[in-house]
Amino acid sequence: MEIRTVGVVGAGLMGSGIAEVCARSGLRTRVAESNEEALAAGRRRVERSLDRGRQGGKLSAEDVEQITDRLSFSATLDEFSDCDIVIEAIVERLADKVDVFSRLDRIVPEHAILSTNTSSLPIMEIARATGRPDRVIGTHFFNPAPVMKLLEVVRTIATSDDTLNETRALGEKLGKRVIVAQDRGGFIVNLLLIPFLNNAVRLYESGFATKDDIDEGMCLGCGHPMGPLQLLDYIGLDTALFVCDALYEEYAIRDYAAPPLLKRMVAAGYLGRKSGRGFYEYEGAQKR
Ligand code: NAD
Predict the structure, then answer these.
(1) 16, 42 Cβ separation under 8 angstroms
(2) 8 forms bridges with which residues in the sheet?
(3) Is 120 labeled as catalytic in the residue annotation?
């Protein structure tokens, strides 16, 4: 099956980037959000990103017009009845994802693949909410989706070979390097990354080092493009907390348990860049 039309559910940080990547690769892209306000915010996020691409010389005005023409936005899933694949990128909560998948299963064509961008949840639990577990798969994009080269494709014990191959081909069409992981909490990348991030928070909360020294240590000492506390602000502390909780639930290993400071910061609404304050403070996209 050749994928021509893609649906994206959720136009937050990830969904808006994934929708942009799909439309830029020539695919008709339908985007759905839970309400009109979130939908308008998602549309603005895509428009701003395309505008940055135009100003930086990566896209011409004509490219932007064609990409915009391929994108459509709606506050319901009903527009997805002609989609070949739907990529879900809503909040990292199992009950919400299960609800969306069971509704999608009734709307999309029989041949369509249903994929989730979950960072940590058991995909088999999501797949069983549908009548097509063999067509359910994980497509784990990285933030920002238009820039990051990796796509982690996650197959469950029920995913068919056709579904895996068609999803891999889609990832390549989107210009991504595809790696394949099993449906185990954290897949490959977060399984390794989360203990590192949690240990950075623990170093900071124990007073062992300042946040700037921790971040500079990893940037200048290990060649990372940003430090772990900066990266947490970038990911969103609420999303990181969901991931820690899911991985701790899966493995009961202390490395995955959310440090108390991370939980308190989320409780305080310090979610990182998206709320203007996390480990650092932000004005627009600028760190202060
Ligand atoms: P986000 O909070 O920025 O966006 C989530 C969006 O989903 C919001 O706009 C919200 O309105 C919308 N939404 C919630 N319920 C919905 C529903 N029922 N129907 C339609 N829309 C709904 O979160 P995000 O960072 O974009 O994360 C989305 C998913 O991507 C999560 O599963 C997360 O684990 C995963 N992910 C995040 C990152 C990251 O760095 N932030 C990286 C990879 C994967």
Answers:
(1) yes
(2) 31, 87
(3) no
